[in-house]
Amino acid sequence: MLVNLNIPEARGDEPLRLTLAYEMFLHHNYIQPTRLGKLYFNKPPLFMWFILLSSKIFGWNIIAIRAISIFFTLLTTFLIIFFSYKVLKNLFLGVVAGLSFITFGDILFYYGYLGEIDATFTFFVALIMFSLFLGYDRNDSKFIILAGLLTGIAFLFKGFVIYGFYGLTLIALTIYYKRYLEFFSKENIISYLLSIIIPFVWLIQTADPINYAKMMLFEVSSRAEGSKNITKFLPHLISFPLQNIKQTLLTSALVLVVLIRYKVDVFKYPIKVFLLILFLNYLPYLLFAGGKGIYSVDTRYVIPLFPLLAVVFAYILIQPKKEWIIKTFFVLAIISILLRFTLGLAVFPKKEGKTGILEGIAIDIIQQVDKKDKIVCSCGEFKAICFYLEKNLGKIVAYPEVYSDWKYLVTCTNFNEGKLVKKYKYRGGLIELYEREK
Fold first, then answer.
1. How far apart are the C-alpha atoms of 207 and 204, rounded to whole Å?
2. Do 387 and 312 belong together in one domain?
3. Is the whole-model pTM more than 0.90?
4. Would you say residue 76 has pLDDT above 50?
5. In terms of domains, do 217 and 73 share one?
């Protein structure tokens, strides 16, 4: 994943996260994020704090944000190995589970290195699930309390969605162990309180706690809309699991072959507990088909389930005790790794072209303007241009509505005003610089 990590331009939400973190750095306000000078309420700030720390090492560039994802991908891999060894008493199974996770298609080729929240969030969700399982398996209250503490911390990544993973895992364990009264035990209540107190302490210090909470609730509820069209919902029940198989290739293909060919006892303890946890946590994404796009949920939402899924996959591959299965698994893993290495070494430079083009445009724009004047940015298509302007100016480049007395406008949309100073072609689109006329 490290090969030519800097070449692909910032994509997806990477420039958004960089902008949020950089404005925290400029404002010295680490509680309330802003985006282009405007209060930002969609996500809490913890991931941006990690970017701030990473920027101390790598500077304000794309490496700073992608290094975080790679670090937590590696950390999650070792966590899987450790957990598998502790619970199943099989180090080789742990290695297979760890290697399985890190070579899942969506991890190795995308979210494992991309500067999104998902890889980091996945580590914390895995830690919460593993802690809750150990708490119930060993009847050890400190793991239950730890899970609550971790949930409170993980809230600061993506908001209320963490309570789904925490709550559904608790319900699964309560159902399996039939310890219904323990749901209201002292250690569980402490765990619940910790999961709430940490977010509450942060939230009340923000600029508008009520609006922030409403926006984060909307983020969750908008992804949990059931389909109102049965003719589109039913195909989702088939297509979504198929997409998940694609996400976890090539291991998932081998697992399917093994399940069809051999009678693998997946209802043996503790695998059946893991399957119940996975099932309850997966069910909302299978049923709420209207949450993203047209009657479909984003497959990235199930990535936090991949660590536990990797443990189950490793068990399925090892349980038949067939040498050909293990050999095939390692061959597939090596193929995946070689493909990823080739992607970074050969495809990135050819596909992406010369790196730093967008930042070069930002630097040229700065040379066309008077740096003392107010500059605004309205560019939803190429969001990174706004970040590069801020980074190279060392000041906020705001939305047009934030600076009503702006002098220069950078835009890549239909919104334009004033005299056109210069235009730049970038990937089939246009970035334009306007100067407001007196």
1. 8
2. no
3. yes
4. yes
5. yes
CB 101 within 8 A of CB 80: yes
Query: Does 74 fall in a domain?
Result: yes
From residue 311, how far is each of 267, 316, 433 by CA, in Å? Answer: 14, 9, 53
Q: Are residues 105 and 218 in the same domain?
A: yes
Which residue range forms the structural domain that includes residue 92? 14-345
Say what the pLDDT of residue 12 is: 86
Cβ-in-10-Å burial (0-12, 13-18, 19+) of 326 comes to middle
Give residue 182's pLDDT: 87
398 DSSP β-pair partners: 376
Q: Which residue has the tokens 């939230």?
A: 203
* Cβ contact 113:69 at 8 Å: yes
For residues 192 and 68, membership in a common domain is answered with yes
* Rounded-to-integer distance, Cα 75 and Cα 79, Å: 6
Q: Which of 292, 323, 345 is the last residue of a domain?
A: 345
Residue given tokens 């560039």 in the structure block: 61
Helix (H) or strand (E) holding 426: strand 419-426
Cβ count near 377 (within 10 Å)? 28
